[in-house]
Specification:
The protein contains six helices and 25 strands. With 412 residues, it is mainly β. It folds into two domains: 142 residues, no CATH class; 177 residues, no CATH class. The strands form six sheets. Strands 1, 2, 5, 6, 20 and 21 form a six-stranded mixed beta sheet that branches. The longest helix is centred in the last third of the chain and has 15 residues. It is elongated. The N terminus is likely disordered.
């Protein structure tokens, strides 16, 4: 049975005291995480990689051609339009990002209107508040720094219906996040979603002491490294279509599936979902892109398809470009999901193999020396005159290795 689409929100966040900061979690710290054996991982990886051999066909590895990639949606309203330009890289390249800077980018209308975008950051071009006439058609014109010129097809403005709700289902071992939406005019039919997600998590062990370089001091909330916030963007292409339905209604369309062993659902999780209306051609483009990027890699997978977008190089028609420029209003909704809704059996898998050791006072310098790689957890014996401290590695007691202690402005 599905849970209601309404999201349960926690009370407003407050700065915790030291006892609140560590109290509840210290009692559960030893049993909260599942720890993977390093030896087991090595065996699995050894078996896995022994069955794989690199394959570099000449068609891919030859030459040094970098095709233009166009990403983004033209927002016809008062919100920000962001267009990202980059260049393709080789499969075996150590570089994953190759932004295209110093380009001239403009939105053009079919009545000769021109709106020039500004570069804000490498390869990112923006315009705040285009406020376009929704009855016109629009396209994108690009001139790169090397003189190549690109033009997208003229497309109609699509009006995206509001998001009705973002909800979740607690499954046996996963959290399913879904969306509900509908278009009462039955005109949208094709949808795409993306999202930003943020979550609160904590380190494997709470460290009660920190070093000032000469001695150990009791840690207060201003030196918190136990609770942190992590963030990410949607890794997959999420699409939906109601073209074969009698009414334009999306009910519990799956947005994301989060394993119960993920730190994302350890304490509190938030998702900012964005919804885009697509044309049929735009939907087909994203379908092919999804298949080519997410559904390949096994002998039973579908074969890759030619990706044809609506961006063309007009200075050299033989030079391909990758991208589909859409123009639509964007709807968004943020929700929070707390761990009160999750089974107690959900235990996050910690990303590091962790252990606790005892450091006697004759080895005290190991804890206060900068760069030692150790953090003190608890005193041994009388806390006023301890005989030593329990300690662990920085990775296991400092959450800032993987996140930030700065509370997001939107956090409830």
């Amino acid at each position: 049975m599905s849970l209601p689409a309404t999201i349960i929100a926690t009370a407003p966040w407050a700065v915790p005291t030291l006892n609140q900061l560590f109290g509840d979690d210290m009692e559960r710290a030893a049993g909260k995480y599942m720890i993977l054996s390093g030896g087991a991982i090595a065996i699995v990886l050894s078996v896995f990689y022994s069955c794989r051999k690199p394959y570099s066909p000449k068609a891919i590895s030859a030459g040094d051609v970098h095709y233009l990639v166009v990403e983004g949606v033209i927002n016809p309203g008062s919100d920000l339009t962001i267009i990202k330009l980059s260049r393709t890289v080789k499969i075996d390249s150590k570089t994953s990002a190759n932004p295209e800077s110093n380009a001239q980018v403009a939105v053009e209308s079919d009545d000769n209107g021109v709106y020039t975008l500004n570069e804000n950051g490498p390869g990112q071009y923006t315009f705040a508040g285009l406020n376009l006439d929704n009855s016109r058609k629009y396209r994108l014109r690009i001139k790169t720094s090397n003189g190549e010129e690109y033009l997208s097809d003229l497309v109609d403005v699509k009006i995206t219906p509001p998001i009705d709700s973002v909800g979740f289902n607690v499954l046996k071992d996963s959290l399913q996040v879904y969306v509900n939406t509908h278009d009462p005019t039955d005109k949208t039919r094709y949808y795409r979603w993306d999202f930003d997600e943020t979550w609160q998590f904590h380190a494997r062990y709470p460290s009660l002491y920190y070093s000032d370089g000469t001695k150990l001091l009791e840690r207060d909330v201003n030196h918190n490294i136990y609770y942190c916030y992590g963030s990410d963007s949607s890794p997959d292409i999420v699409l939906g279509s109601t073209a074969k339905l009698s009414h334009d209604v999306v009910y519990e369309g799956q947005i994301s599936m989060i394993r119960g062993t993920s730190e994302k659902v350890e304490r509190e999780y938030s998702i900012l979902l964005r919804q885009y209306a697509l044309t049929e051609d735009g939907f087909k483009y994203w379908q092919i892109l999804k298949k080519n990027t997410e559904q390949l890699g096994s002998i039973f997978a579908v074969q890759p398809s030619e990706l044809t977008g609506n961006v063309h190089c007009i200075s050299n028609p033989l030079l391909p470009a990758i991208g589909y420029v859409s123009i639509c209003t964007v709807q968004s909704k943020r929700v929070f999901i707390t761990n009160y809704s999750f089974p107690d059996t959900w235990q996050p898998i910690y990303p590091y193999t962790c252990g606790i050791d005892s450091i006697k006072t004759n080895l005290y310098d190991n804890l206060i020396r900068p760069g030692s790689g150790l953090l003190a957890l608890d005193p041994i014996g009388d806390y006023r005159n301890p005989s030593g401290y329990t300690a662990t590695t920085v990775e296991c007691a400092d959450c800032t290795i993987r996140g930030t202690t700065t509370r997001p402005d939107f956090w409830k």
